[in-house]
Amino acid sequence: MYATSYHRASSVEDAVRLKSANEEGKYLSGGMTLISTMKQRLAAPSDLIDLRHIPTLRGISIDGRKVTIGAATPHADVAASRELAAICPAICKLAGHIGDPHVRHMGTIGGSIANNDPAADYPAGLLGLGATIVTDRRSLSADDFFTGLFETALEEGEMVTSVTFEAPEKAGYAKFNNPASRFAMTGVFAAKTAGGIRVAVTGAGASGVFRHPGFEQALASNWSADALSNVAVDASNLMADMHANAEYRANLVKVMAKRAVASAG
Amino acid sequence: MGVEGIGARVTRKEDKRFLTGKGRYTDDMTVPGMKYAYFVRSPYGHAKIRNIDATAAKAMPGVIDVLDGKQLQADGIGNLICGWMIHSKDGTPMKMGAWHPLAVDTVRYVGDAIAIVVADSSGEARDAAEAVVIDYEQLPTVVEAVAALAPGAPQIHPEAPGNLIFDWQIGESDAVDKAIAAAAHVTEIEILNNRLSPNPMEPRATLGIYDTAEDHYTCYTTSQNPHVARLVMSAFYNVAPENKLRVIAPDVGGGFGSKIYIYPEEIICLWASKKTGVPVKWTSDRTEAFLTDAHGRDHVSKVKMAFDANNRITALKVDTIANLGAYMSLFSSAVPTYLYATLLSGQYAIPAIHANVRTVYTNTVPVDAYRGAGRPEATYLLERTMETAARELGVSPAELRRTNFIRTFPYQTPVIMNYDAGDYEASLNAAMQAADWNGFAARRTQSEAKGKKRGIGMSCYIEACGIAPSAAVGSLGAGVGLWESAEVRVNAVGTIEVLTGSHSHGQGHETTFAQLVAGRLGVPIESINIVHGDTDKVQMGMGTYGSRSGAVGMSAVVKALDKVEAKAKKIAAHLMEASEEDIVIENGELKVAGTDKSVPWFQVALASYTAHNLPSGMEPGLKETAFYDPSNFTFPAGCYIAEVEIDPDTGETDIVQFVAADDFGNIINPMIVEGQVHGGIAQGVGQALLENVQYDANGQLLTASYMDYAMPRADDLPSFTLSHQNTPCPSNPLGIKGCGEAGAIGSPPALINAITDAIGHNKLTMPATPMKVWQALQTAH
Q1: Taking CA atoms, which of A66, B28, B96, B314 is between 20 and 30 Å from B747?
Q2: Taking each helix axis from N to C terminus, what angle separates B397-404 and B375-393, rounded to the nearest 10 degrees?
């Protein structure tokens, strides 16, 4: 790791100020990607602005069916929230299967979506739920937030403060692990929301997380795994690597979509 | 016997320090003035070095020096060597290219060491390494063995035209060809044995300390055989004479073969310590381990197996190409020859066998012995062929094996080995019973009802352990003898130190070796210390690999104990005025048989050192040394059965049961043996389902971290069902055969036989990843 300066932000304002004062600095949340990358000398931020100690950024609040999760809430808290499980068990299940126990206790929802790893779970969950991502300066829909591989709509210095969503009528998540990293080689989140059916796919898209209109249309008329059997999955926009070629990923997208719908009930 | 002797499940003495974080590994060693090394390594698979400019690096903070290969060469440090001479079938010796510890003019794989940076901290050393400017001229690369032999392939070493190191054969080619021509059935199959990275939990590390006053070197290193390291560094690399070089391998966190070899870093850190005047420590990081630890396997073979009308094997013909990487590692030549082709008879009476083996240079990290070393390659080849033959012949795989089992011993195979004892059918029967083989059809029906594919497969393996009779291996080209030494040192109050040339890096020698002594003398296990891993303490040794420590290392302890006991009996007889022949040793006492006269062990020990009252002419003291040279290999064998359920939607394989029935000869500690089998099977599951080293066409290692190299984890494995059908080994005093590698040898073919049974055809290579299994199922449709 190259030398870096560590700052512990006490508030969102403090964090934003520190970031603007250090152009080559980076926000640090759980650090589950950033610290590893720095250890491999693949990233060299001049400063780290630690967000984990900002009290307002952590916690889950539920108002009726409206859910708000603070950006610095670790995956383990989401996985273990009974209140959340009562209205949206799928997101708890998703959080409970990210990485390993160490990752789940350090990694945060805000860090995960700001990084937007194409094989991360949360982008599929939030896109599938039609969530809103709240930053220090605005609110963005998930459809607008995730823009590409490790790319988001976040501007320079902008930080995620929370995510909000309306608990769906039904939702399910199914993923198939990469045998080595155990990131999602394909993960599908399917939800029946107030705004319609949404199916989001992670781990498979050549441009990162994406919605699958074919699945959404089929499920709109018939919410069942069988409804997906005859929907084609185009392999041409899918990732290919040594673990899975595009054709196999296309198969996994359909199999996981069916399992996600089946698990939603 | 007893609760602490041979056969007892004694908990491991060494575990207290390991489990409480008190182990002392090489990286834990700190000496005054110690500095840190970082290696500049080639980023290219093949390139000429035009120029190395370390000016900027040397000026960086904390940097003591930057040293390169030309300086190393100028100081007379020798090239790395392969210690086993193999001759091609035309009589020419193997064509070994030069391996400079630091590359001088050419780099041949990504990770090839070029320069060492010594600095106050490891971070500063790494910073400076990035500032070393090297002008490369890139050369074409080749990473696959078959491609490296093709006309026009990039030439890697001038010494080896066409990249061919040797073209070796064993057995009778004519007899095999005749039998194939006359066969009722010939099974033909192509076998790929995937390349593996060893991944011991502790990465390699070394600390080189040069003492100016004494002109003496101390090398702490992660070695399975510190004495061999000292011998090789003295005799071949000119680091220092043996009396001026101490090698210490303290606690070592796993080796699996990869820590047998003497690597460039040990030599360079010793030399750099003298050059810079400071002790120099280097610890590999995990990616460096993937890039530079010797890999295992990587064979491509064509097989023909001939049968007569009664399904008896009449001949086996094997043509293998083995990838040895960019340089010949220490025992690399022995692995695909005498550790491989000599096991091609398996458990079967095969009248004629011929194997041809070509070894090849490629732009990849050197390949050498990895848990099993040659024997997994032989077993996988043979047991996949047997399974395929059974399917083609329409007989059950068990029946085909029974028809061909060797049943009388000793049995001379056509490929050197002389099997001394075994009962292959006993293990086959035990495994089939434990697996409820006959109930498989019903279980398959249940799986099919759930939409799953179920398969079952077996593997009957044999291996040669306890390497090895020194004269025999010497005649086959080995540069060393493969005996072992031991010293049993009884202290004046009766406590005991056993000094052994074996080295424990996970095997539990501190427990099992102590069990042997506790059982023999009837003294508490706590009164026995096992000393190993230090050339200044232990007289000599050949180290631990090839499942040899029990069969060879403990046999040396037995010989030394015999001498100690004989002397103790003489003293006791003298003290009790009895006849030496009437003395027996029991429960920590020397007794006169048939009487109530006895003298405690500690009193005999004390008497030997006070020397007030010893038999006339006897030397004081009670300590004896022995060297044991085995008279034969040992032949552990067994039958493994794997049963799998495959999800046809994803290709995911679930191992629903795994049965291992092994013949290890006599067992010292069943708990430790079970642990060895568990670990071995886990590595076999890794090879069969998960692990695969992959390079791209430019020689870049694609699987250089755990993000891409899939290791087996607890939830990839079922609970294992183990049993033993032991026939004692007749060639060593304890009847031990060895158990360290069996799991890794026997399990891959059982798993692939099970998976191919489930998918209904044979077109599948290791590792059987979900994608490959899914693809195979699409072909089947």
Answers
A1: B314
A2: 110
